Amino acid sequence: MSDTDDAGDELALWQRVLAGDDTAFTAVFDLHVARVHRQARRLVDSRSDAEDVTAMVFFEAWRKRRSVRLVNGSLVGWLLVTTTNIARNRERSRRRHEALLRKVRIETVPDHADAVLDSIARPATRERVKDAFARLSARDQEILMLCVVEELAPVDVARVLRLPAGTVRMRLSRAKTRLRAALQDEHRVAASPEIGGTAS
User: Fold this and answer.
1) Cβ atoms 176, 129 nearer than 8 A
2) CA distances in angstroms from 80 to 19, 76, 77, 198, 199, listed in the order given
3) How far apart are CA 92 and CA 97, in angstroms?
4) Hey, which of 8-12, 72-76, 87-91 has the most confident mean pLDDT?
5) Is the pLDDT of residue 99 over 80?
6) pLDDT tens readout for residues 16-25
7) Distance in angstroms (rounded) separating the CA atoms of residues 77 and 11
8) Residue 38 — very low, low, confident or very high, per pLDDT cuts 50/70/90?
9) What integer pLDDT is reported at residue 5 of this predicted model?
10) 22 — phi, psi (to 5°)?
11) Which terminus of the chain faces fewer neighbouring Cβ atoms within 10 Å, N or C?
12) % pLDDT > 70, the chain
């Protein structure tokens, strides 16, 4: 089956969703849940958080179904942008909560099990990429996620973000340049000797 046929099938499913067919919505969920979860997993610290974000994304898709923007007959672009926004909001809320706890001097013991397992599984290079990516602006992260990681065409990303295609291409080029620069900075820091060592 061609991509055109797939898009037509998804558009037909979404028309049924708009008519209130929850079975059709379940089919849309099954179609995209793995991709949404992968996107969420890149943006939050733990698998359980990624599952929560994924659930919230599809809740929003159902709640806002009449205003959801399909591109080329597919919901995937809207879902990925919504995933990014929800994950960012969740992380901001988490940081505010942690700052409040520190302020009132309430000690907490967070569960780092997932983060520890992930750090063991990842090579040092991937960690440097992750750190460099985290140093980029939210706008640069979004463009790289959609165009490079998720491999959406710039013209489709432009439709989802409601921007001119030329603007998306320009931002993508700049984001790649900034990521390369951030990676070079990370490499220099990793290669430099530790400061403050014991004098011989």
Assistant:
1) no
2) 23, 6, 5, 49, 52
3) 9
4) 72-76
5) no
6) 999 989 899 9
7) 14
8) very high
9) 56
10) -70, -20
11) C
12) 70
What is the structure's pLDDT at 199? 44
pLDDT of residue 77: 92
Beta bridge partners, 74, equal 71
Taking the C-alpha atoms of residue 186 and residue 125, their distance in angstroms, rounded to an integer, is 10
Question: 3-class DSSP state for residue 194?
Answer: coil
The tokens for 172 are 């993508």
Secondary structure (3-state) at 192: coil
Nearest to 88 by CA among 123, 53, 47: 53
Q: Are 82 and 119 in contact (CB under 8 A)?
A: no
* Class of residue 114 by CB neighbours under 10 A (exposed 0-12, middle 13-18, buried 19+): middle
Q: What CATH number is given for 122-191 in this structure?
A: 1.10.10.10
131 residue type, one letter = D
The DSSP code sequence of 148-184 is IIS---HHHHHHHHT--HHHHHHHHHHHHHHHHHHHH
Its pTM stands at 0.56
**CB of 140 closer than 8 Å to CB of 175:** yes
The CATH label, of 3.40.1620.10, 3.40.640.10, 1.10.1740.10, 1.10.8.60, for the domain at 1-111 is: 1.10.1740.10
Q: What single letter denotes the amino acid at residue 139?
A: R
The answer to whether 30 and 41 are in contact (CB under 8 A) is no
